[in-house]
Amino acid sequence: MATLFISDLHIDATSPEITQQFLTLLEEEARGAEALYILGDLFESWVGDDAPDAAQTAAIAGIRSLTAAGVPCFVMHGNRDFLLGSRFCALSGAHILSDPVIVTLYGEPVLAMHGDALCTDDRAYQRLRATVRDPGWQGQFLALSVAGRRALAGAARAGSQAHTAAMENNITDVNAASVALVLRAAAVATLLHGHTHRPAIHALSVDGRACTRIVLGDWHTQGSLLRWDRNGPELVSLPR
Ligand code: MN
Fold first, then answer.
1. What is d(CA 218, CA 139) in angstroms, rounded to the nearest whole number?
2. pLDDT averaged over consecutive 10-residue blocks of the chain (240 residues)?
3. Ligand 1 centroid to 1 CA: how many Å?
4. How many Cβ atoms are within 10 Å of 82's Cβ, its own excluded?
5. What confidence score (pLDDT) does residue 107 get?
């Protein structure tokens, strides 16, 4: 049996093919898995547990079927869906993971993150991240009407797209020193994250120690899946 990892599906009602492929994964391969981990950005936007769209509601029902069948599902906040909360957990049967978290896979400790916290060259984004992850800010935001929250989130996304387009490509990738820092602090040899949409398995050295950084892919034009069993990790793309 394998443990499955995915991230960056960015599900909403505008991309039904992504929702359908996710539901198929839940109904088929995930049913035989030890656990499913979703390392952030399951949803394209999440303004609160009281405002899912039809595609997101279908995705939650799919996760509920999986967890009801006895397969645990763990969900990490991404930069798009960091407001996933207790009602989402109650409806889906999933558990929220903190970021970062150490997951022990077949004896190997693995540091799992969404990945946005590693993009430290993008200082403007890190300031925004600190603001919107603050519980006080989140409480004020969630007190607004759904329409008000949607309007603010739409404006933030438009600003984010303009900002990303204006940045050099390498700036929005992870910062090598930040990667070394988290591996050193966690005292593990393997880092697993998504967010950058650059699926790969990288070998690196931290303080002379051989380490591995595994990057999950996004689901924009195909699915992307990491299977991890007692033989180790296997990163695959899932044709649509
Ligand atoms: Mn992300």
1. 30
2. 97 97 98 98 96 97 98 97 97 98 97 97 93 95 96 87 76 92 97 97 97 98 97 96
3. 28
4. 19
5. 95
Say if residues 56 and 84 touch (Cβ distance below 8 Å): no
Write out the E strands in 170-217: 190-193, 200-206, 209-215
Instruction: Considering the domain delimited by 3-238, tell me its CATH architecture.
Output: 4-Layer Sandwich (3.60)
Query: How many angstroms separate the alpha carbon of residue 100 from the centre of ligand 1?
Result: 14
Question: What amino acid is encoded at 32 in this protein?
Answer: G
Cα 132 to ligand 1 centroid, rounded to whole Å: 14
Q: Which two tokens stand for residue 133?
A: 């992850």
Q: Where are the domains of the chain?
A: 3-238
| CB atoms near residue 236 (< 10 Å) | 13
At 3, is the secondary structure helix, strand, or coil?
Answer: strand
Separation of CA 38 and ligand 1 centre (Å): 12
| 4 and 223 Cβ atoms separated by less than 8 Å | no
What CA–CA distance (Å, rounded) separates 58 from 35?
Answer: 20
CA 131 to chain centroid, in Å, comes to 19
Instruction: Kindly report whether the global pTM for this prediction surpasses the value 0.85.
Output: yes
Judge contact between 100 and 182, C-beta under 8 A: yes
112: CA distance to ligand 1 center in Å? Answer: 14
